[in-house]
Specification:
The chain is of the alpha+beta class. It is built from 18 helices and 18 strands. Among the domains are: 239 residues, MetI-like (MetI-like fold), CATH 1.10.3720; 120 residues, no CATH class.
Length: 598
């Protein structure tokens, strides 16, 4: 009985155990789940946790949108642009440019004989001697003779030593006095004159003077240096060359024609000419025998073309001189309109003509949405390609900095000791380097060496990367110092992994969050650095575009204030991209922070 009683009492106890502890649990029985139910246990991976934290940050999402937009603008936009990076656009416009200058001759001009030298200092001495009415003058160690050949022309000659002779033991040695070749027979004639004690001798048609200076004898003759004339001889064609013989003959013929008042003939260098003097213009036209077109003109007026490759023919020249003499302000010739202006004793001719020039600083239009720059290139297209360059440089610079910083920082933090000491002192040295002066100096050197644009850009990326690794190395070293003695590293050592695998497979991955944040923040700084260097003319060069050298085109206050569309878009691109990188970096830093709320 007692046993049955005990059994009966156990039943209520078992039922009691199956009753819910909380009476309200039955009301929520369907919602209650076991602890190991998949619907109850929700596991969130660290990557997803970081992602959720990141997308909850509005500034970070805004920065990501900025970056994606600029990436698409630079890389995809350039594909669809109808223009190339360096394509220039032109326009035809009517421009007034200086065509020629006219002055009236007031000084003597010199036509130098072939093979002779008459320097500027000697010409100045000749001008002064003619003005003072002298027949000889000295310039340096040389003495020159002036001979009047026409009313306004002088022949210039010089007594020059041709040969010298020295007598020793009855033997006479004759050599050239000017390191040139002696004329045939001169040595024999000179020796005979010395033996005869003559003061001069003649060889052919040339007379030589014998001058003794102590034990040395000199054979001197008169060399014709050139002609000095107040008037100018201009030729109808550019390939015609003046000479002293032609000048002398023409000036003498002009004097004859002026005195006789009629056309005269003369001959020079085997060619027959006729000269016709025009008293009204005070000019003489020279014709080759049998020709009706003038060959040359003698005048007191000097008419020079501004462009060296443009020759002014005699017909146009005479029209210009006539207009200058009459004091007119305009001249029409061959359907061209010339404006004539005078300043003191100089007349200037300007020509209105259509010229094809760069379509520079064209305002925004349907063809060019953002206008054109100072070189006639489409600004929108240049911005797209410039974005490629700026973003590419920032990625490459950060990549180089990360590779160097992770490698050296990892070695320093893992090994410690003298390895750590050497690498950290190297980091200190790089921290102390004056980065901007170094970059400016190297940029100036590359300008001087005329380094091509592609090599310059590659060198710029390498330089910025090498100068920026020290911060990464110091951060990696600090993180690895705190990780190398933990248990998982002891386990890697126990399994026999190599040092390289321990560092780069187990230690460095634990630093990746900090590296991502640092790299993202550094990209914005790199774009600013590259843009500043390009703005200073020391970075990316033409034909490559970058946002910095686009702004560099604005070099004057006038362009800055009147053509805002040239520099403002590039500045906005830099601002948006740098803000995007900075917002992304701030968002990643907060997302990787374990103290952030879930």
């Amino acid at each position: 009985m007692n046993q049955d009683k005990n059994v009966k009492e156990e039943v209520p106890m078992a039922e009691e155990l199956h009753k819910p502890v909380n009476p309200s649990a039955e009301d929520h029985g369907q919602a209650a789940q076991r602890l190991d139910d998949e619907q109850r246990v929700k596991v969130v991976s660290p990557s997803m946790l970081v992602f959720r934290r990141f997308i909850r940050n509005r500034l970070a999402v805004t920065g990501l949108i900025f970056f994606i937009v600029m990436l698409l603008f630079s890389y995809v936009g350039g594909i669809f642009s109808p223009y190339s990076e360096t394509q220039r656009f032109y326009k035809t416009t009517e421009m007034s440019e200086e065509f020629a200058g006219v002055t009236q001759s007031s000084t003597y001009r010199f036509i130098i004989a072939q093979g002779q030298d008459f320097p500027t200092a000697s010409q100045a001495k000749a001008q002064l001697a003619i003005k003072n009415g002298e027949t000889t003058f000295t310039a340096g160690n040389d003495t020159f003779t002036l001979e009047k050949i026409s009313s306004e022309g002088y022949g210039i000659s010089q007594m020059a030593s041709v040969a010298k002779a020295e007598t020793l033991g009855g033997m006479t040695t004759v050599t050239s006095a000017n390191s040139g070749d002696l004329p045939d027979g001169l040595a024999e004639a000179f020796t005979q004159a010395i033996q005869d004690g003559a003061e001069s001798f003649t060889l052919g048609a040339t007379t030589y003077q014998v001058v003794r200076d102590r034990k040395t004898y000199y054979a001197k003759t008169e060399l014709y240096i050139g002609v000095g004339t107040m008037k100018l001889i201009d030729f109808d064609t550019a390939d015609s060359q003046n000479s002293t013989d032609f000048t002398i003959a023409a000036l003498q013929a002009e004097d004859t024609a002026t005195a006789a008042g009629q056309t005269v003939s003369f001959e020079a260098e085997g060619q027959a000419y006729t000269l016709e003097y025009n008293k009204t213009d005070d000019a003489a036209l020279i014709y080759q025998a049998g020709q009706t077109a003038p060959y040359a003109v003698i005048s007191n007026y000097i008419v020079n073309s501004v462009q060296s490759d443009v020759h002014i023919g005699i017909d146009l020249r005479q029209k210009i001189v006539e207009a200058v003499q009459q004091g007119t302000s305009q001249l029409t010739y061959d359907s061209h309109e010339y404006d004539i202006s005078r300043e003191n004793n100089r007349w200037t001719l300007t020509l209105q003509q259509d010229k094809t020039v760069f379509d520079a600083y064209a305002f925004p239009s349907r063809a060019h949405w953002l206008g054109t720059d100072g070189y006639g290139m489409d600004i929108l297209t240049r911005l797209m390609y410039g974005g490629r360059v700026s973003i590419q440089i920032s990625f490459m610079v950060v990549l180089i900095s990360l590779i160097l910083g992770i490698t050296l920082g990892g070695l320093s933090g893992y090994f410690g000791g003298w390895v750590d000491f050497v690498i950290m002192r190297l980091v200190d040295i790089f921290y102390c380097l004056p980065t901007w002066p170094i970059m400016i100096i190297i940029g100036a050197v590359m300008d001087e060496l005329k380094v091509d644009s592609a090599t310059r850009m590659n060198f710029l990326m390498l330089l910025l990367g090498v100068l920026g690794w020290s911060g990464v190395a110091r951060m990696v070293r600090g993180q690895i110092l705190g990780l190398r003695d933990q248990e998982f590293m002891i386990a890697t050592e126990a399994t026999g992994l190599t040092v390289g695998r321990r560092i780069f497979k187990h230690l460095v991955p634990n630093v990746i969050p900090q590296l991502i944040v640092m790299a993202t923040m550094s990209m914005g700084d790199t774009i600013l650095t590259e843009s500043t260097l390009s703005f200073l003319g020391l970075g990316v060069k033409y034909p490559f575009a970058s946002w910095g050298n686009i702004i560099n085109a604005v070099s004057t206050q006038y362009v800055m204030t009147n053509y805002v569309f040239v520099w403002l878009p590039a500045g906005l691109c830099i601002l948006i991209t740098v803000l995007g990188f900075n917002f992304i970096g701030d968002g990643l830093r907060d997302a990787f922070d374990p103290k952030m709320k879930r």
